[in-house]
UniProtKB/TrEMBL annotation:
Protein name: ER lumen protein-retaining receptor
GO terms of biological process kind: protein retention in ER lumen; protein transport; vesicle-mediated transport
Keywords, alphabetical: Endoplasmic reticulum, ER-Golgi transport, Membrane, Protein transport, Receptor, Transmembrane, Transmembrane helix, Transport
Coiled-coil residue spans: none
UniProt-listed PROSITE patterns: ER_LUMEN_RECEPTOR_1, ER_LUMEN_RECEPTOR_2
Biological classification of the source: Eukaryota, Viridiplantae, Chlorophyta, core chlorophytes, Chlorophyceae
GO MF terms held by the record: ER retention sequence binding
Gene: PLEST001555
Protein topology in the membrane: Multi-pass membrane protein
Location relative to the cell: Endoplasmic reticulum membrane
Family named by the database record: Belongs to the ERD2 family.
């Protein structure tokens, strides 16, 4: 069900993608952006949006899903194959072993889900994986410690989207009698906690009018 918190969360998520696309396209550089995180988000969206082919919810829902899929794969294509942009990729620094995220999330999805079917397990896997998909990006920013404004804004907006979704869940819990999504709630809270350290330094740099940097 749509409400102001979900709409704000969706628009914040969309804005984060737009900021990232603008950064890469305008500067012809993906420096400071983790390809590992973008590929993890691609896995998240593919697994979560399989129902595009089986279940029509609304035009809004379909359009948002297509936008997230197309934009994420566009970013990955630029970082891997664009003759100018790919040269700026911090390959030596972006070395987070994402297998340590994917495999535990997949096992957990097979053990803890609402229904043991292929679609449901993949959907649950996407929920768990999204909670930790930002970790390679945060590690890369800590290693390089050279965070431009657009990259900082992208990560901040991405974290804000999930925080707004927590408000959406609280609102739905209070207004919808049978709304219970415990696995989603726990994963969303974990995801927001992952961002807390970044939020602190982002707000601190903004208040002090300083360049954003994260402690090693």
């Amino acid at each position: 069900m749509m409400n102001i918190f979900r709409l704000a969360g969706d628009m914040t998520h969309l804005l984060s993608i737009i900021v990232l696309l603008l950064k890469i396209n305008a500067t012809r550089s993906c420096r400071g952006i983790s390809l590992k995180t973008q590929e993890l988000y691609a896995v998240v969206f593919v697994c979560r949006y399989l129902d595009l082919f089986t279940n029509f919810i609304s035009l809004y829902n379909t359009v948002m899903k297509v936008i997230f899929l197309v934009s994420t794969f566009t970013i990955i294509y630029w970082m891997r194959f664009h003759k100018v942009i790919r040269v700026t990729y911090d390959r030596e620094q972006d070395t987070f072993r994402y297998q340590f995220l994917v495999l535990p999330c997949l096992v957990l999805a097979m053990l803890l889900n609402n229904e043991f079917t292929v679609m449901e397990v993949l959907w649950t896997f996407s929920i768990y994986l999204e909670a930790v998909a930002i970790l390679p990006q945060l590690v890369l920013l800590q290693r390089t410690n050279n965070i431009d404004n657009l990259t900082g804004n992208y990560v901040f907006l991405l974290g804000s989207y999930r925080a707004l979704y927590i408000l959406n869940w609280i609102y739905r819990f209070l207004t919808e009698k049978h709304y219970r999504q415990y696995l989603v709630w726990i994963s969303g809270i974990v995801q927001t906690i992952v961002y807390i350290d970044f939020f602190y330094y982002y707000i601190k740099s903004w208040r002090n009018n300083e360049k954003l940097s994260l402690p090693a």
